[in-house]
């Protein structure tokens, strides 16, 4: 799964979704879905705008967490 750290970054900077939408010109709904980690896809221009705004790299904004895969037990 991919974890989005937007809420953490915004919290550290005491930003509201409305502030971020106004400052970046990004759609408030898109930002809300990223903030609550309910987004199913994201456009590269959105990633670019967020990284530019926060002065961060993609790895600071998103994190890949591998799904745990259960290995079958030999019987």
From TrEMBL:
InterPro entries recorded: Cro/C1-type_HTH, Lambda_DNA-bd_dom_sf
Residue span, HTH cro/C1-type domain: 5-67
SUPFAM superfamilies linked: lambda repressor-like DNA-binding domains
Protein known as: Helix-turn-helix transcriptional regulator
Organism: Deefgea tanakiae
């Amino acid at each position: 799964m991919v974890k989005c750290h937007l809420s953490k970054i915004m919290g550290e900077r005491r930003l509201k979704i409305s502030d971020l939408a106004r400052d970046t010109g990004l759609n408030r709904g898109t930002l809300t879905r990223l903030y609550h980690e309910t987004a199913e896809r994201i456009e590269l221009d959105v990633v670019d705008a967020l990284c530019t705004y926060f002065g961060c790299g993609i790895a600071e904004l998103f994190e890949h967490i591998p799904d745990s895969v259960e290995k079958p037990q030999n019987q």
